[in-house]
Amino acid sequence: MPDVFDRIEWKVRDVFGEGPVCVHVGNVEECEIKRHPTYPKFRAEAISSGVRSAASSRLWESLIAMGRLSDLEGDDTWRLVILDCIVPCFRTTSTRISRDFRVDREELRSAMVATALEVWADTAAGVPPRHVRDRMVKAAFDVAWQLGNSSPSEYPTDDVEIYDGPDISGPRTSLKAASVIDLNFMRDADFVEQIRGERFGALFERLGHFDAVRFFHEEIRAGRRLGSVSKSKASGLHRYWISNPNHYYYASDLYPSYIGLREAASVMGIAESAARRLISAGQFPFPVARAGRSYRVSVRALMHFKDIPDAIVYIDDVENGALHARDDAA
Questions:
Q1: Long-range Cβ pairs for the range 49-55 (8 Å, 24+)
Q2: DSSP label of 23
Q3: Is 9 exposed, middle or buried (0-12, 13-18, 19+ CB in 10 A)?
């Protein structure tokens, strides 16, 4: 009968299959490193490097960083990948404790996973990424032996029903769709949405970057790119039923997904060397991705840190705003 370890493995396999996986920025096409292993090969390497020396493994530092970044996006995929790369070392111990102490194995393994997730949440700040994996493993082993020496268990199997659905407890982002300006005094929601898009388009026109926006819009209209706003989110917009929902997108879609550490440090108002020290100490204010010897910073995470709202805009509104700005400048 499948247990929580099996369900974690199956869910991750459903996501990645046999295709390549990028642990540096999460997207093979956006990564500067062009060679990427398939998920089974990547998993085997992660398990092996964890056994050798998780504290010095760059692969695990990158893996932990991707887990933190996906947490900010409200996505549990990379957190499940981390668990999938850890639980193989739990199997033998859990089987032995279950046999020797006559403890239900499913209950035992559920407790180990639940404990590992608690450590994951507790180490979100102030703990260097290279130490997170070791702490998760140690805590899981500790609770397994405690469970073996005590009965009944305080960790019911229900604690891990989170793997049957997408809602896993943990850090959540407060980054929400919001206006790029304060329109709280306007009561007409349709008008607020329209003005927000027009001012966004006018800004890009005045900055001289609207050609990039126009190309982005052409890609969406041609169907080569879909709007990034989910149907559930778009359905809450007031013009959803009379507008093409695929023509809504987040303002951050026009920016690169990741930038270098030097650029990010400049936006934050600190030196790159100071940013590196904060990362090494596990005190950087948000997770960063690692690609080889360099670091990449998520633009959305940086926007969240700087309290820059990630507005939802509509194609026609943005283009109308650019047109108005062009007419005003003429």
A1: 50/85, 50/86, 50/89, 50/133, 50/137, 51/89, 54/130, 54/133, 54/134, 55/130, 55/131, 55/134
A2: S
A3: middle
pLDDT at 141 over 60: yes
With beta carbons less than 8 A apart as the criterion, state whether 121 and 106 touch.
no
pLDDT tens digits for 235-255? 666 665 556 777 888 888 888
Residues 287/65, Cβ–Cβ less than 8 Å: yes
How far is residue 259's CA from residue 299's CA, in Å, rounded to a whole number?
Answer: 7
d(CA 255, CA 248): 16
- 296-329 tens-digit pLDDT: 888 888 888 887 778 888 888 899 988 988 887 7
3-state secondary structure of 45: helix
What DSSP string describes 80-129?
Answer: HHHHHHHTHHHHHHHHHHHHHHT--HHHHHHHHHHHHHHHHHHTSSSS-H
Is pLDDT of 174 > 70?
no
CA torsion through residues 95, 96, 99, 102, sign: negative
| Count of other CB atoms within 10 angstroms of residue 278 | 16
Q: What CA–CA distance (Å, rounded) separates 243 from 220?
A: 14
The answer to whether 4 and 160 are in contact (CB under 8 A) is yes
Inter-residue contact 277 to 310 (CB < 8 Å): no
Q: What is the CA radius of gyration of the chain?
A: 23
Asked if residue 188 has pLDDT above 60, the reply is: no
* Dist CA 30 CA 256 (whole Å): 9
Q: What number is the average pLDDT over the span 153-177?
A: 36
Q: Which two tokens stand for residue 276?
A: 């590196």
